[in-house]
Amino acid sequence: MDFNDTHQEAAFRATCRDWLEENARLKGGAGNDQRYGKVDEQDFLNSARAWQKKKFDAGWAMLHWPKHYGGLEASAIERIIWSQEEAKFNVPHGVYEIGLGMAGPVMMQYASDQQKSRYLPPMAAGEEIWCQLFSEPSAGSDVAGLRSKAVQDGDDWIINGQKVWTSGAHFCDYGIIVVRHDPNVEKHAGMTFFFIDMKSPGIDIKPIKQITGGSSFNEVYFNDVRIPDSQRLGAIGDGWRVAITTLMNERLAVGDANGTDAKEAFEWAQGQDDHGQPLIKNRGVRESIADWYCQASGLKNTKLRTMSALSKGDTPGPEASITKVVSANKLQAIGNFGIDSLDMAGMLKTDDADVQSFHDAWLGSAGLRIAGGTDEILRNIIAERVLGLPQDPRADKGLAFKDIPSGN
Amino acid sequence: MNLDFSDDQKFLQSEARKFLEKEQSLQRSRSVLDTKQQYDKDLWAKVLAMGWTGIRIPELYGGLGLGYLELCVIAEELGRSLAPVPFSSSVYLFTEAIIKFADEQIKSEILPKLISGECVGTLAITEQLFAPTASNIKVSVDNNQIIGTKIAVPDASVATHVLVICKSKTGIDLRLVDLINNNCEVQDQDTIDNSRGHSLIEFNNANSQLLSNAGDGWALLQNILNQAAVLFSFEQIGGAQATLDMANAYAKQRFAFGRAIGSYQAIKHKLADMYIGLTLAKSNTYYAAWALLNDSTELEVAAATARVSATEAFQFCSKENIQTHGGNGFTWEYDCHLFYRRSKLLSLNIGSLAAWKEKLVSGLERSNLNSLD
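Output (structure tokens, whole complex):
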């Protein structure tokens, strides 16, 4: 056991670090919060674009990609080292993760060489932003229950229906979409996967106002939208299999619920008054902080175990499947703690950055427990894929999609 | 980057697991519980023959001179199989303290005998029905003679030696006492887990030898407990894994309403939560093993983090394993209660969960938040 990089890893880390120091500012100083939703959207997009382009020009944008698409052909461990180092710097994030994390791999696996050459480099360079169109009003956790229709018409497909929870659709150039081409067969067999130009005629995008007051998600309506058959990814009827690949990537892309953590709770408790004493002296608070610290370091050390496997060239175990369910719930608990610690004044919105971060954690965590797989779906995945427990009996098994009860 | 055991260590672990399975460690644990025998003499003899008691003892004294990680993997297997042997008392608590704090004469006399089993050691801390502190210890020493009563001392009935936390003129001392023909009376005590023996020891002017400096006893004790916490955490994650495996197997085989109970989300989510708790605890325990191996300044916080997570994981897994087994889980016949008992015992044996949470947070305060980055 040791936590040192190998010589090769250390050299790579130093290269990452040198470039980052030249091109970005370390976290910790004063400055803008570079998270999406914290500053004016257009300003934020501009700075995210600029940062992505800078990374692309130096090869860091999608460093594991082949060189001819703008990558460095880096190994999995190098990719982690890069992201560990980048995370120490105050750089914009929240715009490209879905496109690069989900559309990127699916295009890499299923698009033609010509399409890859056309779309992958601008995607990595941040010149074209991609979104993901899976969820629908009646297809959330059961995303295979989607009902947006695709009908073949010559060399095109005509799409009608509605998608929902599409992050960034209003500023995206392209999207990946899964739709139902045949409602007469079993539900998983009737889907087909495409990529789509988000500026196509017939697409109508409406922002969803979230409980935070912000609108990073959208409803996307399709009214006789045409997609050329050449933009089909995978065979007709293979949509579910392609989508599953993408969802696996999403779980890796979503990962940790960022935000205020055990450290911030601890520092806050040192400074906050509790009946004339620092709050950190309160035994109940100390126990809670111990619990959050154990969870936070448990996740951190679990990542180290994953890295250990990658470093040795092994496939990581299923440990990473616990990350989101633990971190999103921890975030919600810490947000609650911070607000409660202000007693009656906890209801007030203030300019204080710590108080704001508790409010953000309290509201935002409610969404993080749902996005990219709900707590419940993630527990099902752990139970079925890791522990090998049997699937639930299904009321839709063996039925043609059109015959499945929908509650309507 | 390598937060994992080496191939040799993994091999040692798999051999230990096979050995303990072949020797029916779990069934022996049940038999000790049923008969209140304190420990399994035959299994202990076989463990001694395996050389595990000498893993950390330097070669100079006849040991294997290996590091902590070999001991960690053995601890995980002892925990998984609820081995009814005085290993943890004699090795994690006593042997480690002798290696670190005893003088050369004591070391050369005792260490070889700890390997062979001629000597078995333990540690006596508790005296009353509340947590011991540096200011409430009453067992006292005067002119090397110890007087007073310790309770809940693990494996005292098989031990030949005991380390005693006692009050002296200078403060708290850590003292070595030979239990044989030395005015010590040992009475076995009934506990929530009689598969592991615990006793009361009455010291009536028992001769003792000071370890390290007079008055340093409480600090030495914290050092011993921080180290032992890592090893006990490995026992706890071994036990937690065993109960998760039991619950998993049962959930697949037990049918209700025409289907395996493991196909119900109520059971799936319960087992997923067991897996989550265990995974966090395991990762924290691995990290603490690294800190122990490297005598890191982070050991205090890392050990407390491992201890808290592993205690919670084992207690959670063992109680939910009973729940998954339904009525069968509440019978003496099923093994569920053996793990439930052991999880509670291990949650108390070197201080309560609340005490370790407090150690964790005060450790964070002292580390100036370095451990939080």
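Chain A touches chain B through 55 residues (CB under 8 Å).
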